[in-house]
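# nightly structure sweep
# worker-07 picked up a monomer target from the shared queue
# config: single-sequence mode, recycle default, output format = C-alpha coordinates
# input follows
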Amino acid sequence: MNTVIKASCHCGLNAFNIAFATDSLPVSGGLCHCTACRHTTGQLMASYVGFIGVPLSPTSTSEPADLSNLTPYKTSSVATRWFCSKCSAHILWEYNNTTILEPSWRIAVGSLQRTEGIINSAFHAWIGDTLDGGIADHLISINGIELPRYKASATSGEVVPAGWNTLSTNATPDADDRLHAYCHCKANSFYVTRPSAASTAPFSPYPDVTHAQNNTPDEITLNPSDEKWWLRPAGATQPTKYLGGHCACTSCRTASGNAIQSWAFIPCANIITTRGDTGEAAPLYLQDREKRPAGLRHYKSNPGRNREFCPTCGATIFWWGEERPDLVDLSVGLADEQQAGTRAEGWIEFWKQRISFEEDAISRDLVR
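# output follows
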Protein backbone atom coordinates (compact mmCIF):
# COMPACT_ATOMS: atom_id res chain seq x y z
CA MET A 1 0.00 0.00 0.00
CA ASN A 2 1.24 3.47 -0.91
CA THR A 3 0.70 6.91 0.56
CA VAL A 4 0.57 9.63 -2.09
CA ILE A 5 1.65 13.18 -1.23
CA LYS A 6 1.34 16.15 -3.55
CA ALA A 7 4.38 18.26 -4.39
CA SER A 8 4.43 21.57 -6.23
CA CYS A 9 6.39 24.73 -6.88
CA HIS A 10 5.45 28.32 -5.98
CA CYS A 11 4.09 29.39 -9.36
CA GLY A 12 2.01 26.21 -9.74
CA LEU A 13 3.47 25.39 -13.14
CA ASN A 14 4.68 22.07 -11.76
CA ALA A 15 2.68 19.69 -9.57
CA PHE A 16 3.19 16.00 -8.92
CA ASN A 17 1.92 13.03 -6.98
CA ILE A 18 4.72 11.37 -5.05
CA ALA A 19 4.23 7.81 -3.78
CA PHE A 20 5.79 6.45 -0.59
CA ALA A 21 5.44 2.93 0.76
CA THR A 22 3.05 3.39 3.68
CA ASP A 23 4.81 0.83 5.86
CA SER A 24 8.13 2.72 5.44
CA LEU A 25 6.85 6.03 6.84
CA PRO A 26 8.25 8.22 8.08
CA VAL A 27 11.09 8.14 5.55
CA SER A 28 14.43 9.02 7.10
CA GLY A 29 16.35 11.61 5.15
CA GLY A 30 19.47 13.67 5.56
CA LEU A 31 20.19 17.39 5.56
CA CYS A 32 22.92 17.80 2.95
CA HIS A 33 25.62 20.48 3.25
CA CYS A 34 27.69 19.49 0.21
CA THR A 35 29.12 22.17 -2.05
CA ALA A 36 26.99 21.09 -5.02
CA CYS A 37 23.72 21.30 -3.06
CA ARG A 38 24.55 24.71 -1.59
CA HIS A 39 25.67 26.42 -4.77
CA THR A 40 22.99 24.80 -6.96
CA THR A 41 20.15 25.87 -4.66
CA GLY A 42 21.62 28.92 -2.90
CA GLN A 43 20.65 27.34 0.43
CA LEU A 44 22.84 26.42 3.40
CA MET A 45 21.45 22.88 3.24
CA ALA A 46 19.21 20.79 1.01
CA SER A 47 17.00 17.80 1.74
CA TYR A 48 15.80 15.18 -0.74
CA VAL A 49 14.22 11.79 -0.02
CA GLY A 50 13.63 8.78 -2.23
CA PHE A 51 10.17 7.60 -3.24
CA ILE A 52 8.57 4.77 -5.17
CA GLY A 53 8.81 4.73 -8.95
CA VAL A 54 8.71 7.97 -10.92
CA PRO A 55 7.05 11.37 -10.37
CA LEU A 56 3.37 10.99 -11.18
CA SER A 57 0.82 13.27 -12.78
CA PRO A 58 -1.06 15.31 -10.14
CA THR A 59 -4.31 13.74 -11.30
CA SER A 60 -3.12 10.14 -11.35
CA THR A 61 -1.56 7.47 -9.15
CA SER A 62 -0.02 5.63 -12.10
CA GLU A 63 0.60 8.02 -15.03
CA PRO A 64 4.14 9.47 -15.22
CA ALA A 65 4.29 13.24 -14.87
CA ASP A 66 5.12 15.74 -17.57
CA LEU A 67 8.53 17.27 -16.78
CA SER A 68 8.57 19.76 -19.66
CA ASN A 69 8.18 22.78 -17.36
CA LEU A 70 11.28 21.80 -15.39
CA THR A 71 14.86 22.65 -16.31
CA PRO A 72 17.39 19.82 -15.87
CA TYR A 73 20.87 20.59 -14.55
CA LYS A 74 23.59 17.97 -14.11
CA THR A 75 25.84 18.36 -11.08
CA SER A 76 27.71 15.12 -11.79
CA SER A 77 27.82 12.34 -14.36
CA VAL A 78 25.05 10.48 -12.49
CA ALA A 79 23.02 13.26 -10.83
CA THR A 80 20.50 15.57 -12.51
CA ARG A 81 18.54 18.19 -10.61
CA TRP A 82 15.22 19.45 -11.94
CA PHE A 83 13.94 22.93 -11.08
CA CYS A 84 10.98 25.03 -12.19
CA SER A 85 11.81 27.10 -15.25
CA LYS A 86 9.58 29.95 -14.04
CA CYS A 87 9.97 30.26 -10.25
CA SER A 88 13.25 28.31 -9.73
CA ALA A 89 11.96 25.81 -7.15
CA HIS A 90 14.19 22.76 -7.01
CA ILE A 91 11.82 19.80 -7.00
CA LEU A 92 13.43 16.59 -8.25
CA TRP A 93 16.80 14.87 -8.07
CA GLU A 94 17.47 12.05 -10.54
CA TYR A 95 20.18 9.44 -10.04
CA ASN A 96 21.12 7.55 -13.18
CA ASN A 97 23.98 5.09 -12.88
CA THR A 98 24.96 2.82 -15.74
CA THR A 99 24.93 -0.13 -13.34
CA ILE A 100 21.16 0.15 -12.80
CA LEU A 101 18.44 -0.32 -15.39
CA GLU A 102 16.17 2.54 -14.35
CA PRO A 103 16.94 5.94 -12.79
CA SER A 104 15.97 6.48 -9.20
CA TRP A 105 14.29 9.66 -8.05
CA ARG A 106 14.24 11.86 -4.98
CA ILE A 107 11.88 14.69 -4.09
CA ALA A 108 12.88 18.02 -2.55
CA VAL A 109 11.30 17.98 0.91
CA GLY A 110 10.35 21.67 0.72
CA SER A 111 8.13 21.02 -2.28
CA LEU A 112 5.91 18.53 -0.44
CA GLN A 113 2.55 19.81 0.74
CA ARG A 114 2.79 17.67 3.89
CA THR A 115 5.81 16.32 5.78
CA GLU A 116 4.49 15.47 9.27
CA GLY A 117 4.56 11.71 9.64
CA ILE A 118 6.09 11.46 6.16
CA ILE A 119 9.68 12.72 6.55
CA ASN A 120 12.10 12.30 9.41
CA SER A 121 15.17 14.56 9.18
CA ALA A 122 17.64 12.18 10.78
CA PHE A 123 21.19 13.45 10.21
CA HIS A 124 23.50 16.07 8.73
CA ALA A 125 25.78 15.03 5.87
CA TRP A 126 28.85 16.48 4.15
CA ILE A 127 29.71 18.84 7.02
CA GLY A 128 33.33 18.66 5.85
CA ASP A 129 32.48 20.75 2.78
CA THR A 130 31.37 23.71 4.91
CA LEU A 131 34.69 24.38 6.76
CA ASP A 132 32.66 25.94 9.62
CA GLY A 133 29.89 23.43 10.34
CA GLY A 134 27.35 25.39 8.31
CA ILE A 135 23.74 25.66 9.42
CA ALA A 136 24.19 22.39 11.34
CA ASP A 137 25.49 24.56 14.21
CA HIS A 138 22.09 26.31 14.23
CA LEU A 139 20.15 23.03 13.97
CA ILE A 140 21.87 20.76 16.44
CA SER A 141 18.85 18.74 17.51
CA ILE A 142 15.30 17.94 16.41
CA ASN A 143 12.60 17.06 18.93
CA GLY A 144 15.26 16.89 21.63
CA ILE A 145 17.41 14.38 19.74
CA GLU A 146 20.86 15.53 18.62
CA LEU A 147 21.43 14.82 14.93
CA PRO A 148 24.57 12.94 13.88
CA ARG A 149 26.91 15.19 11.91
CA TYR A 150 28.70 13.19 9.22
CA LYS A 151 31.82 14.75 7.80
CA ALA A 152 31.06 13.19 4.40
CA SER A 153 28.19 10.87 3.45
CA ALA A 154 26.16 9.09 6.11
CA THR A 155 27.71 5.81 5.01
CA SER A 156 31.21 7.14 5.66
CA GLY A 157 30.71 6.79 9.40
CA GLU A 158 32.99 9.69 10.42
CA VAL A 159 31.13 12.07 12.73
CA VAL A 160 32.26 15.55 13.78
CA PRO A 161 31.07 17.40 16.91
CA ALA A 162 29.00 20.57 17.10
CA GLY A 163 31.32 23.55 16.78
CA TRP A 164 33.64 21.67 14.41
CA ASN A 165 35.60 24.22 12.39
CA THR A 166 38.66 24.10 10.11
CA LEU A 167 38.63 27.70 8.90
CA SER A 168 41.94 28.55 10.58
CA THR A 169 43.77 25.84 8.64
CA ASN A 170 41.81 25.48 5.40
CA ALA A 171 40.23 28.85 4.53
CA THR A 172 41.84 31.34 2.17
CA PRO A 173 40.54 34.86 3.00
CA ASP A 174 40.34 37.37 0.15
CA ALA A 175 43.35 39.67 0.12
CA ASP A 176 41.13 42.67 -0.71
CA ASP A 177 38.66 41.88 2.11
CA ARG A 178 35.77 40.97 -0.16
CA LEU A 179 33.22 38.18 0.32
CA HIS A 180 32.88 36.28 -2.94
CA ALA A 181 29.70 34.42 -3.90
CA TYR A 182 28.64 32.35 -6.89
CA CYS A 183 26.06 29.89 -8.18
CA HIS A 184 27.09 26.39 -9.20
CA CYS A 185 27.35 27.06 -12.94
CA LYS A 186 29.19 30.38 -12.27
CA ALA A 187 26.79 32.34 -14.52
CA ASN A 188 26.32 34.51 -11.43
CA SER A 189 29.52 35.49 -9.64
CA PHE A 190 29.95 38.63 -7.56
CA TYR A 191 31.40 39.96 -4.33
CA VAL A 192 30.32 41.86 -1.23
CA THR A 193 32.25 44.74 0.32
CA ARG A 194 32.35 45.84 3.94
CA PRO A 195 29.77 48.36 5.19
CA SER A 196 30.49 51.92 4.08
CA ALA A 197 28.83 55.34 4.20
CA ALA A 198 26.68 54.23 1.23
CA SER A 199 25.35 51.31 3.33
CA THR A 200 23.28 53.73 5.42
CA ALA A 201 21.40 55.22 2.45
CA PRO A 202 18.52 52.68 2.19
CA PHE A 203 15.40 52.91 4.30
CA SER A 204 13.57 49.73 5.27
CA PRO A 205 10.85 48.53 7.62
CA TYR A 206 11.99 45.86 10.06
CA PRO A 207 12.06 42.29 8.71
CA ASP A 208 9.93 39.55 10.22
CA VAL A 209 13.01 37.82 11.57
CA THR A 210 13.52 40.61 14.13
CA HIS A 211 9.91 41.84 14.47
CA ALA A 212 7.23 39.19 13.94
CA GLN A 213 4.57 40.70 11.70
CA ASN A 214 1.77 38.66 13.27
CA ASN A 215 2.11 40.31 16.69
CA THR A 216 4.10 43.54 16.25
CA PRO A 217 2.16 46.81 15.69
CA ASP A 218 2.68 48.49 12.31
CA GLU A 219 3.88 51.66 13.99
CA ILE A 220 6.90 49.67 15.18
CA THR A 221 7.59 47.43 12.15
CA LEU A 222 7.58 50.48 9.87
CA ASN A 223 10.82 51.56 11.57
CA PRO A 224 9.86 55.20 12.26
CA SER A 225 13.30 55.97 13.71
CA ASP A 226 15.00 54.82 10.49
CA GLU A 227 17.29 52.37 12.28
CA LYS A 228 19.86 50.84 9.94
CA TRP A 229 19.11 47.40 11.35
CA TRP A 230 20.98 45.50 8.64
CA LEU A 231 24.35 46.88 9.79
CA ARG A 232 26.10 44.96 12.56
CA PRO A 233 27.12 45.11 15.30
CA ALA A 234 23.95 47.06 16.06
CA GLY A 235 24.68 50.68 16.92
CA ALA A 236 28.38 50.43 16.04
CA THR A 237 30.07 53.59 14.78
CA GLN A 238 31.89 51.52 12.17
CA PRO A 239 29.88 48.36 11.47
CA THR A 240 31.77 45.50 9.84
CA LYS A 241 29.04 42.93 9.18
CA TYR A 242 25.50 42.48 7.89
CA LEU A 243 22.48 40.90 9.54
CA GLY A 244 21.52 37.40 8.47
CA GLY A 245 18.62 35.11 9.31
CA HIS A 246 16.68 32.00 8.39
CA CYS A 247 13.17 32.03 6.87
CA ALA A 248 10.44 29.37 6.87
CA CYS A 249 7.75 31.30 4.95
CA THR A 250 5.63 29.50 2.39
CA SER A 251 6.91 31.66 -0.47
CA CYS A 252 10.57 30.95 0.28
CA ARG A 253 9.90 27.26 0.77
CA THR A 254 7.91 26.72 -2.41
CA ALA A 255 10.08 29.01 -4.55
CA SER A 256 13.24 27.18 -3.50
CA GLY A 257 12.13 23.65 -2.67
CA ASN A 258 13.85 23.94 0.69
CA ALA A 259 12.20 24.10 4.10
CA ILE A 260 14.62 26.74 5.39
CA GLN A 261 15.92 29.69 3.34
CA SER A 262 18.90 31.62 4.74
CA TRP A 263 19.32 35.30 3.83
CA ALA A 264 21.79 38.12 4.48
CA PHE A 265 20.47 41.68 4.22
CA ILE A 266 22.92 43.73 2.15
CA PRO A 267 22.68 47.16 0.43
CA CYS A 268 23.01 47.04 -3.35
CA ALA A 269 25.88 49.53 -3.04
CA ASN A 270 27.92 46.79 -1.36
CA ILE A 271 27.24 44.03 -3.91
CA ILE A 272 29.54 44.35 -6.90
CA THR A 273 28.36 42.52 -10.02
CA THR A 274 28.84 42.75 -13.77
CA ARG A 275 26.47 45.13 -15.52
CA GLY A 276 24.43 43.57 -18.29
CA ASP A 277 24.78 46.53 -20.68
CA THR A 278 28.47 47.42 -20.36
CA GLY A 279 30.06 44.34 -18.84
CA GLU A 280 31.72 46.56 -16.24
CA ALA A 281 31.95 45.82 -12.52
CA ALA A 282 29.42 48.00 -10.70
CA PRO A 283 27.07 48.00 -7.69
CA LEU A 284 24.03 45.77 -8.10
CA TYR A 285 21.09 47.34 -9.94
CA LEU A 286 17.98 45.25 -10.52
CA GLN A 287 15.24 47.63 -11.66
CA ASP A 288 16.70 48.48 -15.09
CA ARG A 289 16.50 45.59 -17.56
CA GLU A 290 19.65 46.63 -19.39
CA LYS A 291 21.78 47.26 -16.28
CA ARG A 292 20.78 44.06 -14.52
CA PRO A 293 23.37 41.26 -14.39
CA ALA A 294 22.86 39.12 -17.48
CA GLY A 295 22.94 35.87 -15.51
CA LEU A 296 19.74 36.55 -13.55
CA ARG A 297 16.12 35.63 -14.25
CA HIS A 298 13.35 37.56 -12.48
CA TYR A 299 10.29 36.07 -10.78
CA LYS A 300 7.60 38.11 -9.01
CA SER A 301 6.53 35.83 -6.20
CA ASN A 302 3.91 38.21 -4.74
CA PRO A 303 2.80 41.81 -5.36
CA GLY A 304 5.81 44.00 -4.60
CA ARG A 305 7.97 40.93 -3.91
CA ASN A 306 10.68 39.87 -6.33
CA ARG A 307 13.10 36.98 -6.59
CA GLU A 308 16.15 36.56 -8.79
CA PHE A 309 17.59 33.18 -9.74
CA CYS A 310 20.00 31.52 -12.13
CA PRO A 311 18.12 30.08 -15.14
CA THR A 312 20.94 27.60 -15.81
CA CYS A 313 21.45 25.87 -12.45
CA GLY A 314 18.37 27.17 -10.59
CA ALA A 315 20.18 28.77 -7.64
CA THR A 316 18.23 31.34 -5.62
CA ILE A 317 20.30 34.55 -5.74
CA PHE A 318 18.37 37.57 -4.40
CA TRP A 319 15.02 38.66 -2.93
CA TRP A 320 13.97 42.30 -2.98
CA GLY A 321 10.90 44.28 -2.04
CA GLU A 322 9.71 47.30 -3.98
CA GLU A 323 9.50 49.26 -0.72
CA ARG A 324 13.28 48.83 -0.28
CA PRO A 325 14.86 48.35 -3.72
CA ASP A 326 18.31 49.43 -2.51
CA LEU A 327 18.51 46.73 0.17
CA VAL A 328 18.33 43.11 -0.98
CA ASP A 329 18.36 39.67 0.60
CA LEU A 330 21.32 37.61 -0.57
CA SER A 331 21.00 33.81 -0.47
CA VAL A 332 23.77 32.83 1.96
CA GLY A 333 24.44 29.39 0.46
CA LEU A 334 26.21 31.14 -2.44
CA ALA A 335 29.08 32.37 -0.24
CA ASP A 336 32.51 31.04 -1.14
CA GLU A 337 33.09 28.55 1.66
CA GLN A 338 36.78 28.25 0.82
CA GLN A 339 37.16 31.91 1.71
CA ALA A 340 34.94 32.37 4.77
CA GLY A 341 33.07 29.14 5.54
CA THR A 342 29.47 28.61 4.52
CA ARG A 343 27.98 30.80 7.28
CA ALA A 344 30.54 33.51 6.50
CA GLU A 345 30.34 34.71 10.10
CA GLY A 346 33.26 37.07 9.54
CA TRP A 347 30.72 38.97 7.42
CA ILE A 348 27.27 37.94 8.63
CA GLU A 349 25.79 38.12 12.12
CA PHE A 350 22.89 35.69 12.28
CA TRP A 351 19.75 36.55 14.26
CA LYS A 352 19.17 33.50 16.45
CA GLN A 353 16.18 34.57 18.53
CA ARG A 354 13.66 33.75 15.79
CA ILE A 355 13.23 32.11 12.40
CA SER A 356 11.38 34.42 10.05
CA PHE A 357 7.73 33.41 9.53
CA GLU A 358 8.29 30.31 11.63
CA GLU A 359 4.50 30.13 11.99
CA ASP A 360 4.34 29.12 8.29
CA ALA A 361 6.76 26.22 8.62
CA ILE A 362 5.48 22.98 7.12
CA SER A 363 8.30 21.00 8.78
CA ARG A 364 7.62 22.13 12.33
CA ASP A 365 10.44 20.04 13.76
CA LEU A 366 12.99 22.26 11.99
CA VAL A 367 11.88 25.49 13.69
CA ARG A 368 11.04 24.39 17.23
